Amino acid sequence: MENNQTAIHESRGEAPASRQKLLVKDIRKSYSGHNGTLEVVRDVSFGVPDGGTVAILGPSGCGKSTLMRILVGFEQPDSGSVLVDHAPRIGANKEGILISQQGSVFPWLTVRQNLMFGLGQVSEAERSAIADRYAELVGLKGFETSYPYQLSGGMVKRVELARALAVKPAILFMDEPFSALDSFTSLKLRKEFLRILGEERHTVVLITHDVEEAIHLADRIYVFSPRPTTIQATFEVPFSHPRRLSSPEAQSLKEAILRELHL
Predict the structure, then answer these.
(1) 152 inside domain
(2) Is 104 contained in some domain?
(3) pLDDT tens, 57-92?
């Protein structure tokens, strides 16, 4: 199966650079410390087509989150480039929003106030209307005046997702966004997320340790090597949505990815 997946990748290939929303070219990143130079990312290149979703899998500490910070614009690479719509990314902006495992919901604001935050120079009434629309979109209608401490962990994650979507980012960067949730809540949120992607077009880059999550959400999966990280293997996910993760084909793909991860 592993060879078959590689063959699928080689035969289909990535979309031409002209059709890539995000293009990552030859990224390298090292850090200097008391014990010398630590190379974290080495020659990473890939593209994400407009409206596509890619997932990144790899061992803990391999450099995935470092790469994500570079993609978002929080850090600059030592060499290489990140292009969004063929223009170099030189810093973070609202065109690319990060949802991290740590969460970023403001506990002193209500759901509506959290969603209104960062909506820019529009009237109070417009911001409120946008906030209420996205609260309903993620299943939080009726909780607009609630505070985060009054919500479950899954509902708080919905607030974070809605706030990211409300600013209409061109690219949604997700660093283990569902890792703190139990498996049932995580599966439910993933289904909600896919429903939202069916209504609103977003390009998505997802970091996860969950192989089934990657298969559930992504069109293509990159397996990263231990540090200094590079792309070790690429797997296409050729299944249409909704995906049945228990199908023999999905399970075979899962086993091939686990073998690549030496699990």
Answers:
(1) no
(2) no
(3) 999 889 999 999 999 999 999 999 999 999 998 888
